[in-house]
Amino acid sequence: GSDIYALHSSTLLPFSLPSPLDTIMLWLFSAASGIFAILLIVRWYLKGKNWDGRTSARGKTVIVTGSNSGIGRALAEELQMRGADRVILACRSAQRAEDARKEMIQRGAEPDRVSIELVDLMSFGSVINFCDRIKEEYGTIDVLVCNAGVLHAEGVTENGHEKLLQANYLGHFLMVESLRSRVNLKRVVFVSSLMHKQCKTEDLTVEVGCSALSTAQYERAKLAEVSYAKHLATQGMESYSCNPGVVHTNILAGTWMVIFETYLSPLLGFIMKNPLEGAQTALMLSLAPADKLIPGAYYSDCRIDATHPLLKDAAKIKRLHEQSVALVKDFL
């Protein structure tokens, strides 16, 4: 038969070879254990570093764009929990903003310290109206976090610009320039992306194709944000940009990559950063003392990081700023 013998304490004991099913189950268990270990390593790597600062936000008035969900909402809630006098949720959708505010209040936020101001970055008129309302209500904005953005948007806005460029960059550019002339704007933080390093050109006048399979427009818009932070620093403003990392949010909506979100959401939720983890670097840049930060610098995982080689050229940064001014000049 299949019995063989093993020597054990001078006694021959019979035992059977594992059945094919037992062998398969053993291999499956080993494979599953290996995959789980790999996922844990990936999770550890992608999680990055949390900011260990305990700096209070007390006394500060902060605007966070795109704060009805994702990173922006997590950041707004954390700033409120740290005692900010006023956190302004700058959002396009009134209903989503109100839902976010209600949930923040249910989680302990003080109602009179969280307010909503509607703004649509794809409309320069909306941005100007927003800035006018801020001027009427506030003399000082301690921190403006330019977080709102989309990964994919085809077509042009009512102002004639690529939707993606305006939603991610030009709308914020106009907001910053307009607020600077209306209130005491102390600090600006741009939530950019690691993808800015893949950008092929910083020239805003070059037409970049847009399709569900291309991120070229997004890359250029995020490069422009990093460049603008550098430019503002040369003008004496506290300005910084950051890469939030690989975060599990709804930004994939409208792209071909949403298929991963649809079918792999539990897995992605496990290995990717959650919104609060993704907000850590922006939180640091919002609250850390200026003497602890590098003016105009780009940060990842709460550490300074290298930017695109194009941005080592001051002339390119200057030209990009001049192009930006030209694109919004009718509203300045």
UniProtKB/TrEMBL annotation:
Pfam families: adh_short. It comes from the Eukaryota. This is Dehydrogenase. It comes from Pristionchus pacificus (Parasitic nematode worm). The gene is WBGene00118619.
